[in-house]
Amino acid sequence: MSVKVDIGKSDQSRTDGNTSFKKGRWSEAIGHYTNAIIYNPTNPVNYSNRAQAFLKIDKYQDAERDCTTCLSLERNNIKALYRRGLARKGLGKLDEAIEDLQQILKIDKTNETVKSELEELLDTQRNNEIKKSKSRRPITPPPVNSTTSKSTEASIEEIADQTDSIDLSSSSSSSSKPKVNVPDTPKEQNPPNTITSSSFASLKQAREGKKKAFVNSTNVSPSSGSSNDKSSTLFIPTPTSSSKSIPHTDVHLNSSSQPQNLPAVTYPLAEETLSLPTDIDINSTSPGAGLIFLRHLSSSPTTTSVKHNWQLISLYSPEVLYRILINLLEPDNLGLILIALEYGLELDQEQGGKERVKGLLDGLKKSKRWKMNYSMLSHQERTVGEKVWRECGGEGGLM
Where is the composition biased (Basic and acidic residues) (predicted)? Predict the structure, then answer.
């Protein structure tokens, strides 16, 4: 549904937006400028002013869009070019931002503010190019000499023979160190199948034996009771969840057995559970009643949340609900309510359910900021809203 052009209301909304902007109320100013655009969408000043408010809250993409719209209506609008340059700078589009500022200097060559901003952008662009040009020196392997080709032909057996003949004894260094008298200890006899050579294979086997001995020793926990206990219990704590408790897992390890590879313990994801509040007064129209409702409204994009929101809305009568929300309604809350109403109409096709939904929407449409809130919804949310309005018997559109 299109809104009739009203230049007087558009100018008044823009004036209100300028007042809010001077007070630092950026979001409020955006709302007034939006109303100005609705009543007169061909005035480029409305888009330029809203872009400036978007820049104050770092919404660079929205600011760039409004400036582009303004420039489509007035090609050489210096304010729109400058603000779009700032928005593109915030988005990292340095080349496009530089083009906007250079376009301003073609129109006004004496603008010192634009000159300083353009110089800063050019310095940033040069520094980025320098960083990109500094590439790491590629690592190349050293050249292979032809004289070493013969040495690489040595067989594995020859290398193994040489390693077996290496003397690892400390006789060469013992002469330089002072002798220490150590009492003789009886030498242990080697078992029949033990490798006694000093080759790499024997050293590796010795290390593996020490490693196994260490693993076996760590698997036996110190016993606080009798020595006849042959197993110990390892308690693996599991995370607690507010919605579903998972019992602890007891894993019994036998200290006399070899270490075993235990399977990884996996925990199921907690299912989303939402419960309706039981301690609220659904007939109260006090100022705090609306805040309590919004606190229980779920913003999670799941079917469970949409069902929960519909059940929460169903607790209230339409008259009470729109009264407590009429001064608290925001675009994000309105979108959640419309999606929940669509879900409710699919469940309840009776005339009574449609009348409840229409009564609620009729009440919410009476709020002062209804048009602003509805215009700031996403395309999908507005489509859902129009669908709900038609199905419940509404005439015209929600705007």
Answer: 1-14
Q: Which amino acid is at 270?
A: A
33 neighbors 49 (Cβ within 8 angstroms): yes
Calpha distance 322→329 (Å, rounded): 9
Q: How is domain 7-131 classified at the CATH fold level?
A: 1.25.40
**Chain center to CA of 140:** 41
Classify the C-alpha dihedral 102-108-113-115 as positive or negative. positive
What confidence tier does 66 reach under pLDDT thresholds 50, 70, 90? very high
CB 309 within 8 A of CB 298: yes
Q: What is the pTM of this model?
A: 0.37
Class of residue 202 by CB neighbours under 10 A (exposed 0-12, middle 13-18, buried 19+): middle
What's the mean pLDDT when you consider all of the chain? 74
Give the model confidence (pLDDT) of 336-358 as tens digits.
899 999 888 888 767 678 888 88
Kindly report each contact of residues 16-21 with a partner whose C-beta sits within 8 Å and lies 24 or more positions away, as own/partner.
17/49, 17/50, 17/53, 18/49, 21/49, 21/52, 21/53
Helix (H, G, I), strand (E, B) or coil at 234: strand
List the structure tokens of 58.
Answer: 């770092």
Grade residue 204 by pLDDT with cuts at 50, 70 and 90.
Answer: low
- Specify the DSSP element, H or E, that contains 111: none
- The mean per-residue pLDDT over the stretch 34-43 comes to 94
Q: What is the C-alpha to C-alpha distance for residues 255 and 385, in angstroms, rounded to an integer?
A: 67
Q: What is the mean pLDDT of residues 105-133?
A: 89
Among 29, 19, 22, residue whose Cα is nearest residue 372: 29
Flag whether pLDDT at 263 surpasses 60: no
Taking each helix axis from N to C terminus, what angle separates 60-73 and 78-90, rounded to the nearest 10 degrees? Answer: 150
What is d(CA 191, CA 193) in angstroms, rounded to the nearest whole number? 6
Q: How far, in Å, CA of 386 to CA of 399, rounded?
A: 9
Determine the 3-state secondary structure of 235 from DSSP. strand
By residue count, the chain amounts to 399
CA dihedral for 77, 79, 84, 86, sign (positive or negative): positive
